[in-house]
Amino acid sequence: MKALVYHGAGQKHWEEKALPQIIESTDAIVRIIKTTICGTDLHILKGDVPTVDKGRILGHEGIGIVENIGKSVRNIKVGDKVIISCITVCGSCNYCKRQLYSHCEDGGWILGHKIDGTQAEQVRIPHADNSLHRLPEGINEDAALMLSDILPTGFEIGVINGRVQPGHTIALIGAGPVGLSALLASQFYSPAHIIMIDTDDNRLHVAQQFGANTIINPARQNVVAEIQKITDGIGVDVAIECVGIPATFKICQDIITAGGYIANVGVHGKSVELHLEELWIKNITITTGLVNTSSTPMLLKSVQSGKISPEKLVTHRYLLSEIETAYEVFSNAAQEKALKIVLTSE
């Protein structure tokens, strides 16, 4: 089969690899229908994730058809169309019993990280019963693909951790795919005012289409001053950080109200300053986390009912065999006006 293989920082190649095989009785082999590229994949290619070995097939998102199953698999059958969760779940370890699936002792984020991933014609999925979600008939495949990672991430780590409530004023810092996913999911809770902050005017325009009441571009506007105007000098109830750089985390600290929540979603590669000398008195809560995907079944039902439409995040489509071109486009997302790219197997 063909797959996108990591060969060290800055090096990847679409090449021939052996077909995956059943190793454990709880495994399934899935033939990829659609996959996508995540910002985490770009971090790997920059050499920011040293735990990824050379020769690894990248990717942790996808939908596909089950081709083969181990003898212990009970809930998934050959021929099922499934969502591949970005988090592998054994279901029985101490962390899984606490629904901290991202820290599963025999799973967590392993696809495209510690084992071969989904940017291939086929992939092996450990603990298939817990790590695959059967797709109902007629559901939009692009929407389903967004349930592999970004929609649960924005919902769980941004909206739920941020305790978004009806009547809240919330700010999302970063209008990339995860930030926009958090924007979509936040509307389950009817916040009174949603503010999107980003330096990319195209993404801010998309955020408005998705439901943002106010957009702020820090390249041209004073974020704190604008937030003060909107909130009558109080600050926002919830600040959701979706970039992962010191400047955006500082914005969250500058705009949060007393008793508010800062929910960090972004992947940080550098230290940030925590201004505890200013925040200690404000009774705020700061949360962090890696998605557990415990919300995926609920989100799948919400997509099926039309309550949320994450397929709106898709801006580009390529054949799976064109994945190297797709990476170039995604690596220049601002210029290319790219959000999520769908790669379809021939």
TrEMBL record:
Q: Where is the Alcohol dehydrogenase-like N-terminal domain?
A: 26-136
Keyword Endoplasmic reticulum included in the entry's annotation: no
* Chain ranges of the Alcohol dehydrogenase-like C-terminal domain: 177-295
Write out the GO MF terms. oxidoreductase activity; zinc ion binding
Q: Does the keyword Electron transport apply?
A: no
Q: Which cofactor does it need?
A: Zn(2+)
Name the UniProt key words of this record, in alphabetical order: Metal-binding, Oxidoreductase, Zinc
InterPro entries cross-referenced by the UniProt entry: ADH-like_C, ADH-like_N, ADH_Zn_CS, GroES-like_sf, NAD(P)-bd_dom_sf
Q: What start and end residues bound the annotated signal peptide?
A: none
| Family note | Belongs to the zinc-containing alcohol dehydrogenase family.
Official protein name in the record:
Alcohol dehydrogenase
